[in-house]
Hints:
Layout: H1 8-13, H2 17-26, E1 27-35, H3 40-50, H4 53-57, E2 58-66, E3 71-76, H5 77-81, H6 89-98, H7 107-110, E4 124-128, E5 136-142, H8 153-173, E6 179-186, E7 198-204, H9 210-226, H10 230-240, E8 244-247, E9 250-254, E10 264-267, H11 278-291, E11 296-301, E12 318-323, H12 336-340, E13 343-345, H13 349-356
Parallel strand pairs: 3-13
Antiparallel strand pairs: 1-2, 2-3, 4-5, 5-7, 6-7, 6-11, 8-9, 9-10, 10-12, 11-12
Helix pairs in contact: 2-10, 8-11
Bound molecules: zinc ion.
Amino acid sequence: MTRTILELEDAIGALPADARAAADRIFTVSTTTGRLNAPASMHAWITKLFGSVEAVSTQHIVRVTNKVTLEGALFNDLRALRPIEVKGGEEVRKTIDSAANDPFDKPLEGTPADTFGRIKGAHGVTASNVAKYDGYHGVLVFDEHDPLAPVDAATIRDHLETVKRWGEAALADDPAARYLFLMWNCLWRAGGSIVHGHMQMTATRGAHYPRVEALRRQALAYDASTERDYFDDLWLVHDALGLGVEVDGARVAASLVPIKEREVIVLGRPGRDLTSLAAAIARVVTAFRATGVMAHNMAVYLPPLAPDGEDWRRFPPMARLVDRGDPANRTSDIGAMELYAASVIATDPYRVIDALRV
Ligand SMILES: [Zn+2]
């Protein structure tokens, strides 16, 4: 039986009691139907695009809200039915190849160093970002130019280890810069201004970035009001619904409230460092590539590298990865709905998790 997100309400209703209770604590789910009348003159076009006029006349939309974080998604089966087409593949390949011999190919000459020097890994070296987001803003320049080169757990682990050492160097330079944030903007559609493979990291002061701090507070409030661990419950629900897979001890979930297409959440174990996410991240990126995803974002949330007096005990190292769509498509993947209301999603999380099982 192929499960779909359209049956989410029923699937939650059929869960074992503990998972069902966790689902009710975290999520609200509703299903609605949108209808329209298409004139005969449109039928051929509709049939060509969506398979049948009936498919468009009655559309089922599943709305999921995370009551703890107030993240929300709207899944439309019609959008989910559309075949994935990656039109930009060849053009992207050409752009990547023609971008070779860039400053990142000779980072020691082409990029500035941080005041505390460079951190070298087996597969990359750090640079200081020229136009900074924050007081400490570095780049991990991959040895490999091609941002779509295959990745494996060992390479990702090396990158994460290098980033961790960069964060420790920043902390040694300024003991207040204890909040390390890691991001990966792969290709221009995901906000990457340089094609050559790279990640970026910042170290900030005072408090963690607002989205991270908000999640910490929401999880603490959840723990206080339910006497349950938020991250354990989040995993319990996804796993019980068949939307989770464990990779090297990390919990990988196809999100029920994805920020945009194919969002995957990787939950590590509290107290472990970011390198514990390596194999899971490699699995997600490899699955993305196999599905035709080229442009993607990744963010890694971490507790501070040194105690800040706040309660981070249950906050796990975690990564969020999202598909940003076809690089050849001129229509942005996000609009006013995503910026100001809720995310509109075409990809079924069940197909996302299918791709993650190997
Ligand atoms: Zn390059």
